[in-house]
Design brief:
- The structure is a homodimer.
- By secondary structure, the first copy, chain A, is mainly α.
- The first copy, chain A, is 60% helix and 8% strand.
- The first copy, chain A, contains 7 helices and 3 strands, in the order H-H-H-E-H-H-E-E-H-H.
- In chain A, helix 3 packs across helix 6.
- The longest helix of chain A is centred in the first third of the chain and has 25 residues.
- Chain A is globular and about 60 Å long.
- Chains A and B meet through helix 1, helix 2, helix 3, helix 4 and helix 6 of A and helix 1, helix 2, helix 3, helix 4 and helix 6 of B.
- Chain A binds a DNA duplex through helix 5.
Amino acid sequence: MPTDRRPLKFDPIAEAGRQWAARWPLATEAEAAISIFRAYRIVLDTVEAVLEPFELTFARYETLLLLHFTPTGAMALGKVGQRLQVHPTSITNSVDRLVTQGFVERVHDERDRRAILARLTPSGRETVERATAALATSAFGLPGLDGEDLRSLTAVLRKLRLAAGDFDE
Amino acid sequence: MPTDRRPLKFDPIAEAGRQWAARWPLATEAEAAISIFRAYRIVLDTVEAVLEPFELTFARYETLLLLHFTPTGAMALGKVGQRLQVHPTSITNSVDRLVTQGFVERVHDERDRRAILARLTPSGRETVERATAALATSAFGLPGLDGEDLRSLTAVLRKLRLAAGDFDE
DNA sequence: CCAATGTCAGGTTGACTGATATGC
DNA sequence: CGCATATCAGTCTACCTGACATTG
């Protein structure tokens, strides 16, 4: 039995916001936070469905994408973790999987022999290209939003990330 | 070794957006989607840290909250799943845990004996009240956003949820 | 008989803690 | 020496699929 996805006859988050506001302060915050949780699920479900034929989760896709954006196609695992804000053991684990799939190989860093680089293989590079094309045809799991909505969304969430200490300046 | 949370010297998502735009279309969508993923992590980390002393995950807190918002403090498990968009086995699991903690009890539905209601206990009701007060003092994991930001965020994500079929009208 | 409700068994992912080998 | 890098072992939550008993 799958998750029950019949649409409700009302907006469940607006309803929760009304109930909240009748009892407690910060209903605006509560509504926004719950909206982020729901939006995350929606986008993730779509994205992972698109990536499934490539045998990629979003976490592994994001790693391939990051490597694809580097000049050499390689980056130290620790730096990958810092960029994606992912736990070191999760990086080890996800790179293990990418190595098994032949999308990435582990290479010793010449300049710092403690560090290990993940380097894209030709197969990995081709896969991230094809997966990206597939994501583009699905609007990246963001239906119904125009350019203005998307920019406003990114801008507000940038403020949040900045205040949370994701990055400086 | 924890996750490396030293702030980057640049906005990693804006950087990814530039790299994306130089290669592929839909960079605006990609940037917004990745922003949602990061925001989710930030808010979830804060919220779960606040809920930890109450021995609640956000999933279990949300269940208690939903029950708290009903007139009788009780709701059928299937309806809980539909409202929270959670898989039936996840509901069974999370209600199991709430029962063990004494926050909820299972009750047979008089009118439909297939259905089982989760019903708040006095302890559950008190816990959700105290947990909510704690969340309020942490701005619900949404630092740096004013009322305008929060409303705009909720409104844009509402368009997304509507287009994704979360609810009608 | 068919549909709906909830549960159980079993598998996957990801994130975490704590300990450890190696190199700066 | 202290610190950083990556890995390993083990735990935990959450999600999923498929099968099942019970009831409408």
